[in-house]
Amino acid sequence: MSFCPSPCVPAGVYSVEEQRERWDRKRKRTGRELVQSEQRYCEKLDVITTYFVEILKAKGTLRQDIRERIFSSIKSIHLVNQTLLAHLENGNFGAGFDQFCPHLHFYTSYVDNFQTSKKTLAVQLKKNKAFRRFKKLQEARPEFRKQKLEDLLPLPLERIQQYNNFLRDLTENTSPDNPEFQQLSRAVSAVSEVAQRIQHNARSHENHLQLQRVQKLLKGRKTRLLAPGRWYIREGWLKTVPPKGTETKPKMFFLFSDILVQAKRCSLMHPTNGDKLACQRVYPLKECTVDKVFGHTKSQGGLISLTFSKVKLLLMSSDQEDINDWYRSLCLAIGKLKTKNTVVHRREELLRPPLRAATHSQQSVAASSQIHSRKRALASEPETESGMSNHILPAGESVGSTSKKIKFSETPSGRSQESSGSSCVIL
Q: What's the pLDDT tens digit per position in 269-328?
């Protein structure tokens, strides 16, 4: 009885045909979800443009500039997505997004204007009674499905994030030999840029709110925290250790990307500032070095040392995890700040024209040429002078003519005078 062993295929390993079938199934499922979600998205865009943008324009309830600040480019986005939906329903994913991506600037302008849109809408709802009544009547329509305008305005931002996920899934499940692969790859790059812009704007807005919150916590207006390029990192209570070993005092610290703010609580009896903090000192992180004094082991608490240009600060906490987080945050902030300053310094050095260096090099070249010429002159003069010492000068010539030749070889500079004087001594 002959036995022919069959090849053993490990679990989870598929053949080429099976892998392609899995890719095709995933691609179809992703495409189906994309088409269905695009249909719902276009319906909501149509509700906004029809029952708000167009009717507000016809009624004149809001001025044109106010309408543009609230709705921005949402009408253009609706038109572009209607064209995209037609391609997607026909299964032309690559061609559809290839024509869609050149119009992403409508989404970019909408993303950049989104915070302004929210603020303008809130102001109009507070001050404009006619618009407030109009908004309430429109939202009562069945087409809105109990959704408010505030819920519909962020839809383009959310859709860009969904496009980013759909396009990545489609690209991963499309064969590189497929003509749509290059089109989908280009769409992934273009949509990812807009998605990153949305995330950056959201982080910037959140950072701005944090700066405003801390600014309101501090008493008075001497400390201005709202500065361009400044980022909020963390805050918390830490104990400061005085250098003379007296009792530690709890202080409130706010860590930003370029400064560390120390504050203390105001008196609770104060009529207006009882819930605020008084800023005591602002430490720049530009020239700061941080060291961990203790807290390396699993002991209770820790102590870190901050050394600035004119002062040294010791901060202590009974919570070791908290002090370790402060240490890491400070190290990261200082490292990024120093790296940024180093890069700027190198660029300045590269852009600065080396005027002094060029002048110095020219002077050194000129001086070296003078020295070489003087050496050549001195090398030729001893032969003549040695010949003069061995025989008697002819009539009509005197020692004075020889001294004139030596003087003509001298230069008026200080260094050349010294060197020529030494040559005269040798002679």
A: 766 777 789 899 999 998 899 998 875 555 677 889 999 988 899 999 988 889 999 999
Q: Which residues constitute the domain of residue 243? A: 232-350
CATH number of residue 312's parent domain: 2.30.29.30
Classify residue 100 by burial, with Cβ atoms within 10 Å: 0-12, 13-18, 19+: buried
Task: Report the range of poorest mean pLDDT among 301-310, 328-337, 363-372.
Answer: 363-372
333-to-258, 260, 279, 313 alpha-carbon distances in Å: 7, 10, 21, 17
**Total structural domains within the chain:** 2
- 148 and 27 belong to one structural domain: yes
Contact in structure between 182 and 170 (CB atoms under 8 Å): no
pLDDT at 353: 52
How much is the CA Rg of the chain, to the nearest whole Å?
39
Of 149, 123, 145, give the one whose Cα is nearest residue 136. Answer: 149
Nearest-10 Cα torsion for 139, 143, 147, 150: -70
* 80 lies in the same domain as 190: yes
Q: In this model, does residue 101 exceed pLDDT 50?
A: yes
Task: Tell me how far apart the alpha carbons of residues 258 and 341 are, in angstroms, rounded to a whole number.
Answer: 11
Whether the pTM exceeds 0.90: the reply is no
> How do the residues of the chain divide into helix, strand and coil, expressed in percent and rounded to 5?
60, 10, 25
Greatest alpha-carbon span in the chain: 134
213-219 long-range contacts, CB within 8 A, separation 24+: 214/254, 214/261, 217/263, 217/276, 217/277, 218/261, 218/263, 218/276, 218/277, 218/278, 218/279, 219/266, 219/273, 219/276, 219/277, 219/278, 219/279
Structure tokens, 146: 């109990």
Cα–Cα distances in angstroms (integers) from residue 389 to residues 26, 205, 394, 399, 401, in the given order: 107, 94, 12, 11, 15
Q: What is the dihedral of CA 346, 351, 355, 361, to 10 degrees?
A: 60
